[in-house]
Write a structure and sequence with these properties.
Elements (H helix, E strand, L loop, with lengths): L3 E7 L7 H13 L4 E7 L2 H5 L4 E3 L5 H6 L20 H10 L2 E8 L1 H16 L5 E6 L15 H21 L6 E6 L6 H5 L13 E3 L7 H15 L2 E6 L32 H13 L3 E5 L13 H19 L5 E10 L2 E9 H4 L20 H11 L17
Parallel strand pairs: 1-2, 1-4, 4-5, 5-10, 6-8, 6-9, 7-8
Antiparallel strand pairs: 2-3, 10-11
Helix pairs in contact: 1-10, 8-9
Length: about 400
């Protein structure tokens, strides 16, 4: 094992727990006999190429400890897509700072970045150990049961839908429907998680639409009408990435990011929730609401999951331990052993298997109609989000005339 300095970066969207992973890397690296200095990329690989580096080894202890309870991305993030022309510069900076251990915390695009850098350095005969640390609220990384950041964002969604559902239920004489849109470009994990808001049959949500299924307008309107007739109102949850059978986004969004991903929240399109709202209002003449949280659930620390915070930290710790064994080109994976009691172990998955591709939900996690989740998904999500608050509802005991 070669001795040298370590580099840590955060990429992509923030989460409530990504800084907990950062703390795990720093604290474990500080105790390593192979790692000398610990540097942090300010604004990801984009900042690294300009040599914007934090000296993390000189941070006060209370700052490092505080990262475990601080949302967003403390190092500053970036969505820069590494080009082939960037790689020689990246290698030059790695050499300049004698960086031999390279850790990136992020999603599939981030895993692609570290995979390309690690591969390039190996081909150039530069000894660099590269390890990825999973992070994405979308929960769409291959090779891991779930990703740090997902459970906290899911919990935020659940509580949003639960409370918005109570409001909609009590206001049904004014608004007949409420539509809640959540992020999730290619996978419906966050939309599906909202099912935990339901305790009784008539509780929100009644319908859940995920990107795993092609959207059908007539089917959607029929199911919406059925719920309104049954409950007097309807709560609908939708993922931002809903598409028609021909691949056209329901939102009609056309803007692409640097990784060629559709920007559903960007200018150039409306939103799925607004489109669905228009369909219902036009078809039935009902008044209703639509709610779009966008990135707010990604840094909602107040409602973060205790399990999520702990697992995020452990992923950071395990990344350094794996690097100390001389293993490179892997991402840390969380492998579930059992649901009850909830038990996991930490493993690894090759970066090339994770990079770029997204992991959708399997069909057995949905009902046959594709408009709600199955009991199997409930078993999957329950241990991740923790206990939820209980709310009461008045019993329908009406006064009698004397």
């Amino acid at each position: 094992m070669i001795k040298g300095n370590a580099l840590i970066g955060q990429s992509g969207g923030p989460t409530s727990v990504i800084n907990s992973s950062l703390a795990g890397v720093i604290e474990t690296a500080l105790a390593s006999s192979y790692i000398k200095e610990i540097y942090g990329m300010h604004f990801g690989i984009e900042g690294f190429m300009q040599e914007w580096l934090f000296d993390l080894g000189r941070q006060p202890r209370k700052i490092i400890e505080g990262l475990r309870h601080t949302p967003s991305s403390a190092l500053g993030s970036s969505r820069h897509k590494v080009q082939d022309k960037d790689l020689p510069l990246i290698l030059d900076v790695l050499k300049k700072y004698d960086i031999r251990y390279f850790f990136l915390i992020g999603g599939n695009d981030t895993m692609d970045t570290i995979h390309r850098v690690e591969t390039y350095c190996r081909n150039e005969k530069y000894d660099l150990t590269g390890i990825g640390i999973p992070k994405t609220v979308d929960n769409d990384l291959f090779g891991t049961d779930h990703t740090p950041g997902f459970a906290s964002a899911a919990r935020s969604n659940i509580l949003n839908v639960k409370q918005a559902g109570m409001l909609a239920r009590d206001m049904q004489k004014v608004d007949k429907f409420v539509i809640y849109q959540t992020i999730g470009r290619d996978a419906g994990w966050l939309a599906a998680a909202a099912a935990l808001a339901k305790k009784n049959e008539d509780d929100a949500p009644h319908l859940i639409y995920a990107p795993e299924f092609h959207f059908e307008r007539d089917k959607f309107l029929k199911e919406t009408d059925s719920c309104i007739k049954k409950y007097g109102w309807v709560s609908i949850v939708c993922g931002e990435g809903l598409k028609y059978e021909d691949g056209t986004p329901v939102s009609s969004a056309t803007v692409k990011d640097k990784f060629n991903n559709t920007e559903f929240g960007a200018m150039g399109g409306s939103s799925v929730a607004l489109r669905l709202h228009q369909m219902i209002a036009t078809e039935f003449g009902y008044r209703g609401e639509f709610q779009i949280t966008e990135s707010l659930i990604m840094c909602d620390f107040v409602r973060s999951s205790v399990v999520d915070l702990d697992e995020a930290y452990r992923c950071g710790v395990e990344a350094v331990k794996l690097a100390e064994k001389g293993e490179s080109g892997f991402m840390i994976a969380i492998n579930r052993i059992s649901d009850n009691p909830y038990t996991v172990e930490y493993g690894k998955v090759a970066l090339k298997e994770v990079a770029v591709s997204a992991k959708p939900m399997s069909k057995d996690l949905f009902n046959a109609e594709g408009n709600y989740v199955s009991p199997k998904f409930i078993d999957y999500i329950k241990p991740l989000v923790g206990e939820l608050p209980e709310f009461i509802q008045l019993e329908k005991i009406y006064a009698k005339t004397k």
